[in-house]
Amino acid sequence: MGGSEPPDNAPEVSVRTTSTLLLYFERTYGAERLKALWARHDVPLSLEYLRTHANYISLRFLERLATLLMEASGDARFMRNAGLFLATPEAMGFAYYLLRAFGSPRMCYLKTIELAPSYNRVGNFHVEQLEQKRLVLTYSSKIPETGRDICELRMGQFASIPTIWGLPPAEVRESECQVLGASVCRYHLTWTDPLTQWGHHLGLFLGTVGGLVAGSLGLAHPIFGAVSLAMAGFAVGGWWDGRRELRGKDEALRSQNQAVMGSLMELQQRYDEIFRANVALEDRVAERTQALKESNSKLEESLARQQELDRLKSEFFDNVSHELRTPLTLILLTLESLERRGAEDSSPEVVLQHVATMERSAQRLLRLINNLLDLAQMESGKARLRYAPLELFGFLSTVLPPFLTMAERQGVSLKLEGAAVAPVEVDHERMDIVFQNLLSNALKFTQTGGVTVRVSETEHEVLVDVEDTGQGISAQDTKVIFDRFAQADNSGTRRFGGTGIGLALVKETLELHEGGISVTSELGKGSTFHVRLPKGRAHIREELRERRRAEMPVRRERRGSGSFPSVEAGGAENGRPSVSVVARDHAGPGPESPRILVVEDDPEIRGYIAGLLKQHFRVLEAVNGDEGRQRALAERPDLIVSDVMMPVMSGLQMLVALRESPQTVDIPVILLTARQEVSAKVDALGTGANDYLGKPFSPRELLARIETQLRLRDAAVRSAENERLAAIGLLTSGFAHEVRNPLNGLMNALTPLKEVLRDNTPDADLSRAMVEVMEECGQRIRHLAESLLSFTRTSDTPVLLSLDTLLDSTLGVLTWRVPSGVTVERSYECTVPVHGDPGSLNQVWLNLLDNALRAVGEHGRVQVATHRDGEDAVVTISDNGVGIRQEDMERLFQPFFSTRAAGEGTGLGLALSRRIIVRHGGRIQVRSTPGKGTQVEVRLPLRPPGRSSSGGGLDGQGEARVGRLG
């Protein structure tokens, strides 16, 4: 509805309705509360206005008033109760007594509906059904009501009418409501009529008649007799009415008493049921309590065992870490000595590179062992701190220089901001570990921008913020980033490595010093780690103080092993190591060497594998799965060696993409991964990997596996060629068989022709006939030769091919193989050309048709059909031969498996056929029932990927071709 709302005093609803609301609120909650409510909410219409029955208000004001009174009362049934208050002397005045003496509920309802337009000008009542004690009526409002408050008030008023005669309220039921979407509000009313008081009137009438009769008979004075007897009759009638009313009340009380007794019996029954249920519940509680005690006892035992296991685990980590550090220290010392001696002795560059790689890997392993040892000590409660004053700004200025070098190599900035602050009592060596971890993480995840370290202090704490402009951390990961072994990215394509113990070690180390760490981060904008350490000495815990003399310090050089982009020695300017991130190719020993694609995101491992392989092969490199996929499609290497967990695209995802492409479906792939569990190997091999090698791996084993896969590939190529030669042999045999008849005819025609030519008078007609025979035989021989050449021709690039022509060509060269009792039926319904290599596809049709002819034997039927199914051309070759056993169905496409007798086949036909079809982007499927025949279905795409669907006359269904051969 458009326009503004009407004023509050609009002539829509009479204030008689509001007077009932106000009167009920005043009688229930007090007049003072009503006045205070009016003053507090500044109601625009005064109480005096609403108590003047001649006034009107708007429907919207009535709804707001109802809501206000309901909220003030706190009674959800306020409107219904206020409506029931209508049938009271206070609300109705003299009309209440008049209706009680002379009216009835039925008459009152009808009068109320009749007078409704005088006090409600926005709605109409309509009586649908009226009986003695039942009424059905509807109410429709011209102005839609916004809530059900007025509906509740209306139903309360209808229910109140029978109470005028001391009867129970009427039962009011609303079956439809306009507020809830109905067209009208429909109400169903039922009530009880008051007992008819006819005794008084009958006694008064009979007494009056009797007095008049007595006066006419002279028995008494007429007036006195009439009056006295009328009064006596009225009294007797009243006594009779009272007696009937008492009997009715007795009957009602008797019914109520029976109902109460029934309720008491039902309550007794419910009490008995509750008592039994309570007893059962107590028994169950006792059982559960006993079970809970037993469970608690078991849990206590399990907890004790778990605590003992944790203690043993911590001791194990502690002992193993200690034992591993000793040989690692010796390895590092030896490598350092070799590196120094190699530089002095001018050792070969490759030796120095291997020594440098070994040293970096040993440093990374030592760092991991040190972190595990520190965590184990903290968990077992053996961690001890060597408290000493430390000024953090000066300390960080000595920590940053090695990281500055790394920052320069990455092309990002690293700066320290702040000034000298008050010293804090900390363990210097552990603080070194804390800030090395924070700085290494910040640089590792920052590719552009820089890292800023800010030092500040408050009255009680020294604060250090490590801020970076990296990729940021998601909200769900910030909750677990400081948990042990937690990683913000656990997918197979995560970009950065790590063990997930660095930040856990930082957090627990700072908590040992009564400090703490928190992080704020936003994805794509960077992260800030906030470190706080307390001032003074109040936080020092004497039980954690290390009282032994300092041991020989373990070598903890500030290197980037495992935390920064890996470096490759050699080839850098001024002898400094340079970042090796970009992939490089290696020429190998010669141009004829096989090409190996190495896909690995870690530059050190990729460089090592490439250095190992380039001595025997030509090597291509890729830094992630997506780059490896692109290079494999472009370069078509002979073999791929790939890691599994890589950024952008994992090794398994790359493998799936390669197996889906016809160009790379048959390239051997060897996967390298640190995951050694059986499920990982099953997933890799099931995805299509040719081999699976776990890290760490032996170089000799890797070379041996590569050689094996290359030999298998060569064997497959040779087998395919052998199978092709076998097919050509089959064709040449057929060609020799078919060419024999025309060749005999040609030779037979030559002899008469020679004799005719020797005669002095040659016979022209005979000569012409012999020449025609020779020409016909030559045409047949040429046709057979062209069929053979057409069948065997190949194409390096896919060309448009007609399936009809290909299949007819194959059937033509196999005509000699068709016994006289075998019928070959053709049904070609797809004339849309496909893209492919004609020689390869002809080999497929030859293998499938030869198998079908062998299956039917001397008598049977072979059907060759084509049709279009969406964007696929479907070729179906069916026979009614011997069929294939169910146990052989799963092995049909395995190389060297054959259902023929030994020596009758190589077992490569179906395997190579599937390989050819897959290379064309299609699928092949075999269905067979032993004794009933076999059906082979080949699906080929009608268009290569990326080709539009518009093809002019080449598109769509052509005219069906049906024929028979044999």
Structure, explained:
This protein is an alpha+beta fold and 966 residues long. Helices cover 51% and strands 17% of the residues. The chain contains 26 helices and 28 strands. The strands form 8 sheets. A 6-stranded mixed beta sheet has the order 26-27-25-24-22-28, with helices on one face. Strand 18, helix 19 and strand 19 form a beta-alpha-beta unit. Helix 1 (15-29) crosses helix 5, helix 22 (764-792) crosses helix 23 (803-813) and helix 24 runs antiparallel to helix 26 (909-919). The longest helix is centred in the N-terminal third of the chain and has 124 residues, at 222-345. It is flat, with a radius of gyration of 52 Å. It starts with 12 loop residues before the first strand and ends with a strand. Residues 490-499, 550-580 and 945-966 have low confidence and may be disordered.
List the SSEs and their pairings.
Elements: E1 13-14, H1 15-29, H2 31-41, H3 47-51, E2 56-57, H4 59-73, H5 78-84, H6 89-92, H7 94-102, H8 105-119, E3 123-130, E4 134-141, H9 149-160, E5 171-176, E6 185-190, H10 199-216, H11 222-345, H12 349-380, E7 387-390, H13 392-410, E8 413-418, E9 424-427, H14 428-444, E10 450-457, E11 461-468, H15 475-478, H16 502-512, E12 516-522, E13 526-534, E14 567-568, E15 578-579, E16 595-599, H17 603-613, E17 618-622, H18 625-635, E18 639-643, H19 651-660, E19 669-673, H20 678-687, E20 691-694, H21 699-758, H22 764-792, E21 799-801, H23 803-813, E22 821-828, E23 834-836, H24 838-856, E24 859-869, E25 872-879, H25 886-889, H26 909-919, E26 923-929, E27 933-941, E28 961-965
Parallel strand pairs: 8-10, 16-17, 16-18, 18-19, 19-20, 22-24
Antiparallel strand pairs: 1-2, 3-4, 4-6, 5-6, 7-9, 10-11, 11-13, 12-13, 14-15, 21-23, 22-28, 24-25, 25-27, 26-27
Helix pairs in contact: 1-2, 1-4, 1-5, 5-9, 10-11, 11-12, 12-16, 13-14, 14-16, 18-19, 21-22, 22-23, 23-24, 24-26
